[in-house]
Structure formats: C-alpha cells, structure tokens
Design brief:
- There is one protein chain.
- This protein is α+β, with helices and mostly antiparallel strands.
- Among the domains are: 65 residues, Immunoglobulin-like, CATH 2.60.40.10; 85 residues, Immunoglobulins (Immunoglobulin-like, Sandwich), CATH 2.60.40.10.
- The chain is 24% helix and 33% strand.
- The chain has one helix and 18 strands.
- The strands form four sheets. Strands 8, 9, 12, 13, 16, 17 and 18 form a seven-stranded mixed sheet that branches.
- It is elongated and about 135 Å long.
- About 19% of the residues have low confidence.
- Keywords: Disulfide bond, Membrane, Transmembrane, Transmembrane helix.
- GO terms for molecular function: signaling receptor binding.
- It holds the Pfam family C2-set_2.
- This is CRTAM protein.
Length: 297
C-alpha cells in the first residue's frame, strides 16, 4: 500500500482512494510501486514537509520539504513634498514571500538602495515592504524608478517610474540635474509605514494617502496644512471637557447645599415649637401645684 500525507499529518491519498476532501489534489498515476498526485492553486499555507509511506514486507518512507514562493504585488510609487528642500519618493509592495529587494534607478544610471523596511503580515508568512528616497534637487526632464526583484519573478523585475515633469512645479523647484546631486536615502524619522492591513489579497496592510492624484502607478501626495489645525482643535477639546465637568459638579454641590439648608431650617422650626410646647406644659403644671397643696391642708 502507498500513502501520501500533507504537512499537517492528514492522509491525502491511500492507494487510489482520495481521503482528504480537498479538490485541489488530483491523482496522476497509481500502480503497485508508484503513487503520483498533483496539487493546483498552491498558496503559502501549502508549504511544509510532505510524506510518502510504502507498506510492504519492509516499510519505507520518504519526506520532501516543499517551499512556496509568493510573488510581490506591482510596486506603487508615491511622491510628497519634503519638509525642507526637495521631494521624498516612497515605493510600496505587499504579499511577497520571502522579502523582496527594492532599489532606485535614476536617469543617469545611478542605482541607490534607499531606506527599505519590511513588515510581516498577520498570516505570519507574507511580507509588506516599503522603501523611501529623498531627492534634494531635480530637473523637470529627470526620471526616477523603483525597481523590485524577487525569486518568484524568475529573473524579471517589476518597475514603477516617475517623470519629474508630471509633478506640480513648486517655487524654486528647478535646480541642478540629478547627476550632480541626485538623492539621499530617507532618514528613519517618520518612515512611510504599512499598517498590518494593506494588501489587495491580504487585508493586513493598506496604505491610503491623504490627498492623491493617480497617474498609472504614480501617486502624488501633498501634506495638507490643515493637519496642524486639527491637532490644535484636539488639544483644546480636553480642557473644555474638563471645565464643563467641573461646572456641572459645582452646580450639583450648590443644589445639595441649598437643599441641606432648607432641611436645617425646617428642623430648627420644629425644634423651637417643641421647646415652646414643653415650657407651656411646665408653666401649667406649676400653676396647678399650689391648688392641690391648699386642698390637702
């Protein structure tokens, strides 16, 4: 008898009988000495060690480790105005296994590595990758390209390019060509991150720019000035709420004091009436006492 087991230890086929209810497995050939099967629509969850058992007078077994490669998505290129001089380029890709390699190519033939960061997805298998590059000066005729390499691409490369002439022309943007002072890698401060939810296939990482204008695989992003105003409003909201809470508590305390004062006044009036009644009773008792004494004599 022949038997195939998947990495989880479940029997896939026993001789020509399919045991595992997964329609992606197909029987290719079965004979006394051979059991060949096929798996289609492979995913990274299918990788692991597959076992083949041969039951005869002498038990034999063989194991084979299957490694699955997941090709990355096409890179998405974003450009934003830098806080200082120049622009910042950001390149994003997701859904790859193993981690991809990202580099930057300028029109003068210079290739740079940039600041590349990797983040593991929620499934613990696929990666999301971002790379940033800061351009200090550029000319409108220049170009910059994000190049993606991965073993699953089998020697091919994915590329997203930016033509600087497509950018909105800021004041004093025109300067020396990229060959003179092209670019520097972006510093790690405030890196362009990908949150664990962003892939079209894996919802663990999704990056959404604030203000964008789409051109093929290029997204132009400009930081809105209103972010500072929104932050100030949020900072002012907490003191206003605290002041309102204190005001409400003060009103409650005042109402309680007024009610307590009224209760004390009512209690005092009742006490005065009781004392007056007691004094009147005592005076009447004193008036009756001499009459009784005379009667006794």
């Amino acid at each position: 008898a022949l038997q195939w087991l998947n990495p989880d230890g479940f029997t896939i086929f026993l001789n020509a009988l399919q045991v595992l209810r997964d329609q992606r497995y197909k029987l290719l050939h079965y004979s006394k000495d051979e059991l060949s099967i096929q798996l289609s629509n492979v995913t990274v969850q299918d990788e692991g060690i597959y076992s083949c058992f041969y039951y005869s007078s002498h038990f034999q077994s063989k194991r084979h480790n299957v490694e699955i490669l997941a090709a990355p998505s096409h890179p998405v290129l974003e450009v934003s105005q830098d806080a200082g001089r120049g622009i910042k380029l950001s390149c994003y890709t997701q859904g790859s296994k193993p981690q991809p390699q990202i580099s930057w190519l300028l029109d003068n033939g210079m290739e740079l590595s940039g600041d590349t960061r990797h983040q593991l997805g929620a499934d613990g298998r696929k990666w999301s990758t971002s790379s940033t590059l800061r351009i200090l000066s550029y000319s409108p005729q220049g170009t910059a390209s994000c190049i993606l390499q991965h073993p699953a691409l089998r020697g091919q490369r994915l590329m997203a390019s930016l033509h600087f002439q497509d950018l909105p022309s800021p004041e004093g943007a025109e300067g020396p060509s990229p060959s003179e002072n092209p670019a520097v890698p972006s510093s790690p401060e405030n890196p362009a991150g990908i949150s664990p939810s962003s892939s079209p296939n894996d919802p663990e990482h999704q990056h959404q720019p604030s203000q964008t204008s789409q051109m093929s695989h290029l997204t132009v992003k400009q930081d809105p000035e209103s972010k500072g105003i929104v932050k100030k409003e949020k900072n002012l909201l907490l003191p206003i709420l605290v002041a309102a809470l204190i005001f409400v508590l003060l009103i409650i305390v005042l109402l309680f004091m007024m009610k307590l004062k009224k209760a004390h006044g009512a209690w005092k009036r009742e006490n005065d009436v009781s004392e007056q009644t007691l004094e009147s009773y005592k005076s009447r008792s004193n008036e009756d006492s001499p009459g009784h004494e005379r009667n006794g004599q």
